[in-house]
Structure formats: structure tokens, C-alpha cells
Amino acid sequence: MSDFDDINFFRSRTLTVDPYPFFDHLREQCPVLREPQKGVFMVTGYGEAVGVYSDHATFSSCNAVSGPFVKFSVPIEGDDISDVIDAHRDELPFSDQLPSFDQPLHTAHRGLLMRLITPKRLKENEEFMWRLAERQVDEIVAEGACEFIGGFAQPFTLLVIADLLGVPESDHEQLREQLASHSMGIGSSAPMEHKPLEFLYGQFTQYIEERRRVPRADVMGSIASARFPDGSLPDVHDVALIAANLFTAGQETTARMLGFALQVLGTRPVLQQQLRDDRRLIPAFVEEVLRLESPLKGQFRMARHTTDVAGVGIGAGDTVMVLPGAANRDPRAFECPHEFRLDRPNGRRHLAFGHGIHTCAGAPLARAEGRVAIACLLDRMLDITLSAEHHGPVEHRHFDYMPTYFLRALESLYIEFTPAAQ
User: Fold this and answer.
1) Which residues, in sequence order, are bridge partners of residue 218?
2) CB atoms within 10 A of CB 234
3) β-strand 41-43 against 32-34: which pairing, if any?
4) Domain CATH code at residue 227
5) Out of 19, 130, 274, 340, which residue is the most buried by the measure of CB atoms under 10 Å away?
6) Coil, strand or helix: which one is 199?
7) Could you read off the pLDDT of 215-242 as tens digits, one per residue?
8) Number of helical (H) and strand (E) elements in the chain, helices listed first
């Protein structure tokens, strides 16, 4: 019997620190395997994950966050529960957010979101990123050491999103404090709130209402006047939901991605020098970080009707959990998957941003943030290493991870460096 056979994926602190041997164990038995604690079908295979992500007619996103932990108020019976999902989906946490929407509502709201994240707006936002990155480095570089997640990654990614959405600079610090003090309880032992982003809705509703009353030629004015693909004007509340979701989700996952990027740089001086010598390698570096340490550890789906994946029978109402971090280390898809390879030819095929209609709309933004931040940090910091005081010597490194089955995230990362001459 394996040590993994009786382990509780949703509670184990050991798997929080290093889930990858467990993922390999599951995949070796079957790329779709039902775990015994909650009866969730764990999808660890790359091809199987792509199949579930792509089949939105079979797999509903209604429980994308809540998984098996919150039930409908009515019994699940029969071979097709589409009517039950449609009638009761609002009972589940995060039911008001885009990742939990199904067609056709998802198409309409994603279409609205894409009208906010236009190529022109992304280009303007990237210009802001370069200035912001320099400003954030200025706050930490003189000391020659810092806690990177809180000192750079979180404020940088938060302010990038705030600029993208046109949040007035006078409100940046207020929103930063709100997010820092508000726990959503996703994937942890804390109770899961039904609408955990509600504290932001009022703020964004106020912005949208002001712009509709007094139109202005600014970013928030464009958001206020954006229409659904069919030409109809969204309710103010709908726009506020989308803005709030983008604001929080984009900030958190990208900050964690940057943390893993610095962890890699701090443990691989040769790779660090490669990037200094040729900055054109930075985009490939970002992709390999995303593949190897996907910030989103898992996403749930609910089977609308009886089906099967990889020959494994799944009943109507059963919960499926797609594990991008496992799929991205499937040896059938990626050669020597546990190795960091800068020249990996198919590295960009990872599932860190999901796949299909629910692919993260902010993926281009996250990639740009990674590219800009890494380039700026390499410009301003030489000989980046990890703090032996906080993380131990090279042969005995230790890190603290967020205790959640939903995100793969370092709690903190202490780095040391030599400030570059200016």
C-alpha cells in the first residue's frame, strides 16, 4: 500500500508543500481517479484535462470554486441534472463570478470583459508597468534584501490591475488595504463565503454609476459605456462584478507566479546569468515557471449527465477536479516534466491559464507583468539569492506555502541581492 492511498488531498499539509509525487501516484494508476475522501474525480492527465476543459456541454462550471463542499438544496437524481444546475446554481459560492458561469451567460459576460481588455488598453497598461516596476524596486533595492511577495509582487500586480481598470490613484491604497485584510476562505479550512468579493462591488458600482451620470473620456468611462456583444447595455451590477473579479483574481495569481519566478532565479545562478545575457529568453522563462509551478492548483466541474473520461464512468452530479499543476507535469505531454527547461519546445502549451472558453482572459496581462517585472529586477539587482536565515542553507531549503488545495502559492520569499550601480 502506498503512503498516498489514505491521504486527504484537501487537508494534508504535506501535499501543500509538495503535491507533485502525489499527482504522479494518481496518474500512474489512472489519469482520472476517484479519491476516497470526497468522491472527487481527480484529473491529472494532460489530454484528459484538456478534454474536460473543452467539453462545457457535459461539464458545468457552476461549482468551479465550491467543488464538493457545498451542495444543492435538492437531491441529485437521474442521468441528466442540467435542469437542477440551471435552477439552483445561485445557491453555490462564487455563483456571481465569471469562472462559475456556463453558456450562454458566460459568452455574454466574457465578451464584455474582452471589451475592457483591448490590445490598445493592454499596450497603455504595459507602458505603466515599466514605470511602476522601477518605482516598486526603488522601495526595496537599497537594503540589498527584502521579503519579495509583500515587498514587490503584491503591490506591483495590484497597481497594474488598478491602472488597467482606471481606478483613481487616490483610491489605490484603500483597495490595497481592503484586499490585504479580507480573507475569502477559498481552498482552506476557513468557511467559504457565498459572495466573497462583495466588499469590492460597492466601490466599482460607484465608479460605474458616476461615469454613466457624467461621461468622461477615461478608462473607467470606457468600462461604463461597454456593451454586451448583442449591443445591450449591461446592468451596473454586472459591470461591477466583472471589474471586481478581474481586480482580485488577476492580482493574486500573478503575484504568486512572480514569487515562484524569483524562487527559481534565486536557486539557479547559471539560469539567472543566461537571462541577464539575453533578455529575449525572459518570455520562455515565464512560460516554464507557469508550467512547473502553476499558481492555480485545481478547478472543479460538475457533470451534467452520465459520462466517462479515459474510460472512467462519471455520474450526473459528480464533481471532477482538473489539476493543471498535475497535467503540466504529465510525461506524456512534456519530456522530463519535473525539470526546468528554458528551451522546452512546447512549454507554452501548459494549462496554467486553463483551456477552452474558460481560458483566463487576463493571460496576456499576466505574461506582460512577468516579462516586465523580471527584466526590471534583473536590471536593478545583481546576484539574487535566497536568504539562508529564512529558508535554510542550499542543501536544506524550506518554504512556507499557503494552506489551500486551490492555489499553489508561497506565503513569503526572502531574497538577498547586490543593488546594481545606477
Assistant:
1) none
2) 18
3) antiparallel
4) 1.10.630.10
5) 19
6) helix
7) 887 777 888 888 887 888 888 888 887 7
8) 17, 10
Does 3 map to a domain? no
Which CB contacts under 8 angstroms, 24+ apart, belong to 332-337? 332/45, 332/46, 332/47, 333/46, 333/47, 334/46, 334/291
Tens of pLDDT, residues 272-330 = 999 999 999 999 999 999 999 999 899 999 999 999 999 999 999 999 999 999 999 99
State how many domains the chain has.
1
The single-letter code of the amino acid at 253 is T
Q: Is the peptide bond before 331 cis (omega within 30 degrees of 0)?
A: no
Residues 6 or more apart whose Cβ sits within 8 Å of residue 373: 129, 133, 152, 153, 156, 258, 261
Task: Classify 317 as helix, strand or coil.
Answer: coil
* CA dist 121 → 3, 164, 344 (Å): 50, 7, 31
Between CA 322 and CA 32 the distance in angstroms is 9
- Residue 4 placed within a domain: no
Q: Which three cell numbers stand for residue 228?
A: 454586451
Q: Which SS3 state, helix, strand or coil, does residue 419 take?
A: strand
Q: Which domain holds residue 128?
A: 13-419
Strands 299-303 and 59-60: antiparallel
- Residue 238 lies inside a defined structural domain of this protein: yes
Nearest to 93 by CA among 68, 56, 58, 112: 68
Residue 7 located in a structural domain: no
- 310 alpha carbon, distance to own chain's centre: 26
Listed residue (363, 357, 362, 361) closest to 56, CA to CA: 357
